[in-house]
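Sample 3 of the quickstart, ligand fe (iii) ion:
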Amino acid sequence: MARAVHDRRISHGGTLLSSHRHTIPDLGVSSWAIVCGRSRTARGAVKVSSDNKAGVGQVFSATCLHAPRRDVLEVMDDVVIHVGEDGFIREVLDPGAPGRDALVDAARQAGSLSVIRSPRFLIPGLVDLHIHAPQWPQLGKALHLPLEDWLQQATFPLESRYSDVVFATATYRSLVSTLLANGTTTAVYFATLHDESTRVLADICIELGQRALVGRVAMDHPGECPDFYRDESSDAAVRGTDDLIAYLARVGKGRVLPAITPRFIPSCTDELLAGLGELAAQHGCHIQTHCSESDWEHDHVLARMGRSDAEALHEFGLVGRHSVLAHANLLGDSDMDLIKQQGAGVAHCPLSNIYFSSAVFPLRRALEKGLHVGLGTDISGGPSASMFETCKHTVHSARMLELGVNARLSADERGVPNSRIDFIEAFHLATAGGAVVLDLPVGRFEPGYRFDAVQIDPDAVDGGILRFDGLDSTEDLLQKTIYGATRSNIAAVWVDGQAVAERAD
Ligand code: GUN
Ligand code: FE
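Result:
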């Protein structure tokens, strides 16, 4: 299969090692078009039936950027991506590649060709590893409180409202559609301890076409969970989790998956943690929880368990290849070694950490040790629903860790050397890196990966990107996207080759 990309390796310092450019030829389509198999189309979209009669699948002609590794940004100028009916990328064809013209012609005739013209370009769909779906109404509120008070005074009362399925339906629909419009094609959700409204969240993801992991939150500890928001027993929490796993095996179509979700050690009894560990061993499904987020939490676990979060979670069978540990700021070296050995992943949530954590996650150290790491918004601990913002905060917080923050100290004792992260690494973490954490074939434009993609329009009138002809390379536009893109700059979003969000022009 022919595949040639223009590989621009960019060092941490941002030095371009190679550069190529092609103009996109006129393929005879008067304006950019989105083709989707679903009944929904937007203005500017060409509608085709879901059973593509010619069996061509979907074909996209565009300049595409991805970062399959953290030190490589590939700019694929004017490629044609062939997506099968199953949503998998079959081939990525360069200009002049054998069979490319015939494929484009066939797709045009079948009405399944989408042409995205420069300066617009495609990036892989964004992967948000950590979202508290019920906290959506609280975005941008209550952030003056420390974690333990925020949970008790603001968050648990809000989450308890999701016993009301009507309330849950409205807020979850608003959240999922906003995240899709923001380019989040894979979302990892904590729901609440309510079985029914957790299923509602999963149903909405299925309906709106978002790839998702959904967790029914388990929390039964009487010392840390209030009467009005606590599982009635560890058995009830394990049963509710098991039911969700069975439900999603039936209806999730492999796109919406269950995640075993102990909230965090302080809110779970040992019986519950052990029961969920057994469930994980039985089903091999994903696990998500919070780990060593703040001094309060870290010390609470040390005092109760006599060991760190990572060690205690591991003993309960909760740290494995499909575990997502949120925050992980206070990991020691032996914790990192354990996580690496188990193949587990970390959801780095830089914005939320500013509010609730007592330290900056040592991201560079974790990456150099070979841990799987991706990024999370941590809505609503992180008051932003944008993964571009999350990339930006990743760069900023790493820079502050490196430089240090206390101006009263001399420069050489202020920071942690070799901590900075550049925009390409952040972009990688928000796409391919997050996908590796989840062990899902997304996050890159390569055969064998699913076509989850975001169309960036740098020229959007109300957007946050300023483009200057002759001054901005495609890489520059990606950097400007990460630093400034708003929802207006996102023209269209696809999951499995199907349009799931389109900007109303
Ligand atoms: N630890 C336990 N629950 C939560 C939560 O909802 N948000 C954050 N940031 N940390 C937690
Ligand atoms: Fe969280």
